[in-house]
Amino acid sequence: MGKSLRLMALLSLAIGANGCILVADFDPTGGPVSLTGQWSVDIGDGQLAPDAVSCTAAGITELELRVYDDDFLNYYSDSRLRFPCEAGFFASGPMLMHGQYRTRWLAYDANGFEVARSELMPLDASLTTTAIVAPATFIVTQPVPLARGNLDLTLEWDNDPTTLFSPGTCGSAKVDVLQYIVRDEFGAIISEGQAPCTESLIFEDLNFGSYSVEILGAIDGSWLWSSTCSPLPLSSVEGAYICGIERNDI
């Protein structure tokens, strides 16, 4: 499978991998019983509502529920019982006839290959109009990739030390070189270095989180500019901010 996961518990009902009825001689539909159920993906810190990240980590794209007859020999499946992993729950309209059934939950990857299945479980739909299926939990035992993005800073350099702040460019402020230190929300240094003066800095491929960036600027070897830009939350592919770098020699 290429993924390390196991299926705990299960849901109860069925869908076909191609949307068609798979066993023609067993058809429990046409009755008044509606079905409802939910599933979760555990990425290591408890059961979570599925989303694109956790489903991708589990290698699951689509879910299928199969309804078996009481002899476990035949099952039924159709497109009403096919769900994207990230949906997390389903609720059908009236579809199942009253009776006792067995069900099995299956999971498929993006190529349509089965990657996990449940054991057969009982479903009692004999005296109800809504049958609640047992919840399914997919436990992912490999790390989930963290969401990442770029931090894009526009720098405005203080070009007049006699005023509170007068934003300008490297040229107008006469800054020769800058030094930067990027820290995460816990204070750990993520990146540091020096570069020729610029009005733009981009820090790529950072984990989603909150950051601070300390900027120093020098002219003729004297570090006259300094500011710490924070907080800088990164929660999308691109986080853009404007940082004013003050001159502090007056």
Characterization of the model:
With 250 residues, the protein is mostly beta strands. The protein has 2 domains: 5-140, Immunoglobulins (Immunoglobulin-like, Sandwich), CATH 2.60.40.10; 148-245, Immunoglobulin-like (Sandwich), CATH 2.60.40. It has 2 helices and 20 strands. Strands 1, 2, 3, 7, 11 and 12 form a 6-stranded mixed β-sheet that branches. Strands 4, 5, 6, 8, 9 and 10 form a 6-stranded antiparallel β-sheet that branches. It starts with a strand and ends in a 5-residue tail after the last strand.
| Radius of gyration over all CA atoms, rounded | 29 Å
CATH class of the largest domain: Mainly Beta
Number of domains: 2
Instruction: For the record, give the distance between the C-alpha atoms at the N and C termini, rounded to a whole number.
Output: 65 Å
Shape: rod-shaped
CATH architecture of the largest domain: Sandwich
Provide a concise account of the structure shown.
The protein has 250 residues and is mainly beta. Helix content is 4%, strand content 52%. It has helices spanning 52-58, 170-173; strands at residues 5-9, 29-42, 47-48, 62-68, 75-76, 82-84, 89-91, 100-108, 114-117, 121-124, 130-132, 136-140, 148-158, 167-168, 177-184, 189-196, 200-207, 209-219, 222-234, 238-245.
Features:
single chain; 250 residues; mainly beta; Immunoglobulin-like; 6-stranded antiparallel sheet; 2 helices; 52% strand; disordered N terminus
Architecture blueprint of SSEs:
Elements: E1 5-9, E2 29-42, E3 47-48, H1 52-58, E4 62-68, E5 75-76, E6 82-84, E7 89-91, E8 100-108, E9 114-117, E10 121-124, E11 130-132, E12 136-140, E13 148-158, E14 167-168, H2 170-173, E15 177-184, E16 189-196, E17 200-207, E18 209-219, E19 222-234, E20 238-245
Parallel strand pairs: 2-11, 2-12, 13-20
Antiparallel strand pairs: 1-12, 2-3, 2-7, 4-5, 4-6, 4-8, 8-9, 8-10, 13-14, 13-17, 15-16, 15-18, 18-19
